[in-house]
């Protein structure tokens, strides 16, 4: 088990099992599918599931629908170990994984780009992938995830990290909280596809619980800072 003071290697652009060209090609396939073309990135059942999820999430965002959340059960010691050990492998490819996550997010859920003035009007996945601002934000996401993983044995530190993230996105960036749920799903997909040798179904279940905990905590912080009142008053 990693100790609470474990420090992972700094985020770097090492070679991911999925090459950069292949990453962009996958995003292109999704784009073609959305335009009515053919693509085979996912099995038909997974594509249908993703389409249903995308429609549900964007409907929730548009209608202001709220989740009725229950607090997830605490991570067990075994689950913490599985998350930390799998993350050690993922974080070796930090930058490429972060870019893959954001490309998937923006292609499948284009409304998420509204919060990024630098590339909200970019539709071409190749152009998105080259964006320095996208890579910068990918870096931030991966480093935040790294801090969370390092804090699994320190609940106070984890709560503090989530509080900073939640308040910043509610008050400064004014991001609808449903996008944290959407991003969590994208993270799980990318990790499961690109690191299937370490992100087994059991490990994926542990990650699902962690990200559900993150979403629960973030939404609680949004409520605490008066998000409902704020969002309704700002239109």
From TrEMBL:
Family annotation (Pfam families): Globin
GO molecular function list: heme binding; iron ion binding; oxygen binding; oxygen carrier activity; superoxide dismutase activity
Entry keyword set: Heme, Iron, Metal-binding, Oxygen transport, Transport
InterPro entries: Globin, Globin-like_sf, Globin/Proto, Globin_lamprey/hagfish
Compositional bias ranges of the Basic and acidic residues kind: 47-74
Cleavable signal peptide: none
UniProt cross-references to Gene3D superfamilies, sorted A to Z: Globins (1.10.490.10)
UniProt cross-references to PROSITE patterns, sorted A to Z: GLOBIN
Domain of life: Eukaryota
SUPFAM superfamilies listed in its UniProt record: Globin-like
EC number of this enzyme: 1.15.1.1
Residue span(s) of domain Globin: 74-223
Region (Disordered): 32-74
Catalytic reaction annotation: Fe(III)-heme b-[protein] + nitric oxide + H2O = Fe(II)-heme b-[protein] + nitrite + 2 H(+); H2O2 + AH2 = A + 2 H2O; 2 superoxide + 2 H(+) = H2O2 + O2; Fe(II)-heme b-[protein] + nitric oxide + O2 = Fe(III)-heme b-[protein] + nitrate
Assigned protein family: Belongs to the globin family.
Protein name per the record: superoxide dismutase
The species this protein was found in: Perca fluviatilis
């Amino acid at each position: 088990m990693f100790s609470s003071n474990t420090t992972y290697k700094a985020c770097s652009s090492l070679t991911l099992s999925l090459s950069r060209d292949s990453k962009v090609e996958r995003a292109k396939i999704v784009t073609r599918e959305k335009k009515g073309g053919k693509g085979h990135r996912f099995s038909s059942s997974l594509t249908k599931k993703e389409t249903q999820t995308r429609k549900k999430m964007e409907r929730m965002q548009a209608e202001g629908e709220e989740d009725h959340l229950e607090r997830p059960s605490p991570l067990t010691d075994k689950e913490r170990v599985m998350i930390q050990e799998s993350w050690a492998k993922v974080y070796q490819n930090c930058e490429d994984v972060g870019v893959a996550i954001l490309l998937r997010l923006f292609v499948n859920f284009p409304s998420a780009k509204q919060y990024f003035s630098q590339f909200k009007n970019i539709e071409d996945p190749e152009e998105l992938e080259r964006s320095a601002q996208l890579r910068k934000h990918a870096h931030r996401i991966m480093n935040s995830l790294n801090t969370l993983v390092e804090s699994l044995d320190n609940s106070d530190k984890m709560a503090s990290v989530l509080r900073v993230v939640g308040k910043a996105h509610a008050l400064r960036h004014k991001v609808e909280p449903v996008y944290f749920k959407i991003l969590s799903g994208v993270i799980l997909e990318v990790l499961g596809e690109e690191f299937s040798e370490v992100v087994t179904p059991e490990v994926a279940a542990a990650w699902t619980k962690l990200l559900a905990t993150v979403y629960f905590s973030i939404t609680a912080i949004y409520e605490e800072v008066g998000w409902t009142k704020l969002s309704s008053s700002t239109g």
